[in-house]
Amino acid sequence: MGDNDESSQRQDTPYYEGSAGGWGSVGSVSSILSTERPDPGVIQTLWRQNKPKGHMCTSCAWTKPPEPHLFEFCENGAKATIWDLTQDRCGPEFFANHSLAELKGWSDHALEKVGRLTHPLRYDRETDRYVPCTWEQAFAAIGSSLKSLNPKSVVFYASGRASLETSYLYALFARLYGHNNLPDSSNMCHETTSVGLKKVTGSPVGTCILSDFDHCDLILFFGQNTGSNSPRFLHTLQKAVERGCRIVTFNPVREAGLIKFVNPQNPLQMTLQPATEISQIYLQVRPGGDVAAMAGVVKRLLEIEAENSGVLDHDFIRQHTQGFENFISRIQLASWEEIEENAGLSRASLEEVAEIYANARCVIGIYGMGLTQHVHGSVSIGMLVNLLLLRGNIGREGAGISPIRGHSNVQGQRSVGITEKPELAPLDKLKELFGFEPPREKGRTTVEVVEGVIDGSVKAFIGLGGNFAHAISDSGRAEPAWERLDLTVQIATRLNRTHLHPGKAAFLLPCLVRAEEDRQATGPQAVSIECSLSHVHGSLGERPPASPDLRSEVAIVAGMAKAALPDNPHVHWDDWTGDYGLIRDLIAKTYPEEFHDFNARMFTPGGFYRGNAARRREWKTESGKADFTTPESLSSLKGPLKTDELTLITLRSNDQFNTTIYGFSDRLRGLKGQRDILLISPEEIADAGLVEGQIVRIVCAVEDGHRRVSQPLTVTAYDLPRGCVAAYYPEINPLIPLSYHDILSKTPAYKGVPVRIVA
Ligand SMILES: Nc1nc2c(c(=O)[nH]1)N[C@H]1C(S)=C(S)[C@@H](COP(=O)(O)OP(=O)(O)OC[C@H]3O[C@@H](n4cnc5c(=O)[nH]c(N)nc54)[C@H](O)[C@@H]3O)O[C@H]1N2
Ligand SMILES: Nc1nc2c(c(=O)[nH]1)N[C@H]1C(S)=C(S)[C@@H](COP(=O)(O)OP(=O)(O)OC[C@H]3O[C@@H](n4cnc5c(=O)[nH]c(N)nc54)[C@H](O)[C@@H]3O)O[C@H]1N2
Ligand SMILES: [Mo]
User: Fold this and answer.
1) pTM strictly above 0.90
2) Would you say residue 243 lies in a domain?
């Protein structure tokens, strides 16, 4: 454990011998091209993908550089576009032939694979089928249902893809209607960042921009699987490594993309040159062990400082931080035994990282779901900030903290008002612009939405994209409760499991995808999104829509709002739908500092920067300074495991986008053919008296009166630390208790649930 020598890879566990990228990624794209029957224009669309005036990929949120590569798309970006532009259709005829009871027996893959939704649909309980309706019928029914409900019992969820324009209108609709129940997929994802990072730095988003990666000499990489989830970022990492930057990775799983990468767009590297080694040190930390690992690094750093003062940036600490003394005392109190035990890493390996850190001038901290999805996820983020603060690594060129966001516009949705936290929404500004009294009560997070669905206090749910009922924790326990809601509305592109749990009145409304031409009264419309590095990018779709009956997300949101709300002289749903430039003007008026001249700037190559106070060392925290976090416990798990318990981490394969399952290969982990598998180390298999290939189930070890048992899973030996198992999301979600979430932000602890294996 802990070295990056390929020969040390256990030969009896599956693993991927190749590098990320390379011919494997080309093969993977060809394979989806052959099974998905995309519209022939897809090649032209891919050519324009992520380029100025082109269409912005709907896969990850990694930034779109000002000088794009010849092909500025990756294997998984291509899959997402090909999936969107399929010629397969899921229309009224399909629904006439299949009841929802039957479809509940289909896999996630099979449901979405049917094709693009083509018509607005209404659920008919008598036949248990979706039947076609007109847009006018749908809007009228939704409007009258919303009018009859208490707004506080209604939830408007957003999944992170919809544009800034749609998102702004959606949030405005919610507030005009009378609630702040505006959770987002971010509540299952980087809410730990929005709350935890904000608490200690004042910034709810990362502080880095793309050029920082040209100046850093060390990247500390925690729990983000770049090869599958943001592959274009590998180009940035490769470039950094090639100029001498070092990467130290903490991840229980040896992820191929963070080990070796061949740039599939570099003909020389594809044929002759060796792959680029990405991580110089790769530490297979125990799930939830990052706090301890960082404590170890800091402990050694303090010793180095004692030997040779000047390693810590005392001026910065004095001027810009608070809580340093407390934090240091806590670290001095931690024993190496405690650190090694919690981290699952040796003292020597952590000391080595400290030496490298002490000698690095400019350091960037990267993280993803490996840090955020834990009961003490915000403490892990606090620890990473601590580590950076010690050497003044926030707020200068080449340094900073950079969470890698999920959905392509999830960060942007928060920027334009989709939030359940009223204090984060510009309520006074909305009052002034639209002449109404916005609701001030706190809205529901995703966890609180499900609690409300179960206890009956939530009566209606509108989903702007996503597959919420299936993506959230305790999905099994909550599923039947969804059907008791008075109203469910799902705005979607493809059929998914959430759609199979309709409320008493239910509508499934199909929308355009981002690559499609969005023609409105004033002509084709562009939209915009915000990337992980806080740059705003314009996007122009140009493919013919999958069906003439599709509407844009803007038009659907406006259609519902118009039907549900009384007239207001300041609110012009039809005009806004006719010209999205008017919506951008409203965004600019609402957020002048960040979005001024929005229309003029939206096609700036590389996007325009929203700016970041922490990057300028202005700390918008309660203390006015950057805060050191003093961890109570050295683990981000809820508590210590009992002897027969293991920590469950839930993973994405390389062949899925969240609950969208493209196929059954996890190429970069050397796994394929099956998703119902339980990854576990060979030592753990032996200790548990299991054999490889055996079918087992896992049960959740949390005792709260609910029994949670998994589907049958095939025991699969894999190179993992002791004390943990891994399985694929979303199939395993019925095992995750709703009550298991980050304490501060309520982000579900999808990477840290205690389980037991039952044969
Ligand atoms: N192709 C593709 N792209 C995607 C997505 C997709 O599903 N498919 N999803 C999008 C979304 S919404 C998001 S949020 C992002 C998700 O992207 P990531 O942030 O990469 O999330 P995950 O794939 O859940 O897993 C993150 C990594 O954390 C590691 N890990 C697990 N537990 C721990 C731990 O305790 N400590 C540490 N240090 N590491 C740990 C896992 O081994 C894994 O490598 O990707 C986005 N991009
Ligand atoms: N166990 C476990 N659970 C997790 C996670 C985990 O790591 N482990 N990760 C969590 C994370 S990070 C996230 S973000 C959530 C994801 O949760 P969601 O965002 O709710 O789920 P997705 O799977 O991304 O949603 C897929 C559906 O979105 C619809 N869709 C696709 N494109 C569009 C579009 O352009 N417009 C509209 N209106 N609809 C569209 C399609 O119908 C598709 O079926 O899951 C969370 N759940
Ligand atoms: Mo996410």
Assistant:
1) yes
2) yes
